[in-house]
Amino acid sequence: MNLNLSSRESLSNSVMEGMMQGRPSIVTDVGGNTELVRHNVEGRVVPYGEVEKLVSEMVFLMNNRDTAVGYGTMARERIEQHFTMKVMVQKTKQLIDSVNLPSAEQPTAEALRSPD
To answer: Which residue has the higher pLDDT, 108 or 56?
Structure first.
């Protein structure tokens, strides 16, 4: 089981590493955690600070091995499909290409210089 109980988080490497290893996650609903882990798909998402809910979700996963294994399988697939270096580079390139002006419309170096 992979736990991330942060009060603030961007896109957590530790969550991604656990997911890549096929571990189900329990994460707080902050930052990029919910971009990585979808509730009841790759694991469980709990509101930050709700300790009883966290404990309940941990007990649930410990008592429901088949569900936990299924979440782990989905977690690995999500990382492989959306968050590998290759995929991230492709997505970044697509974004850059989508905002690039055609070369005929590119400003010249002279036009970009600030006036003296």
So the answer is: 56
Per-domain boundaries in the chain: 2-100
Q: For the chain, how many helices (H) and strands (E)?
A: 6, 3
> pLDDT tens digits for 71-101?
999 999 999 999 888 988 988 888 888 887 5
Tokens of 31: 């930052």
Best CA proximity match to 42, nearest among 91, 81, 90, 77: 77
DSSP structural state of residue 60: H
How far apart CA 31 and CA 115 sit, in angstroms, is: 41
- Lowest mean pLDDT across 1-5, 61-65, 74-78: 1-5
Domain 2-100 is found in CATH 3.10.20.30: no
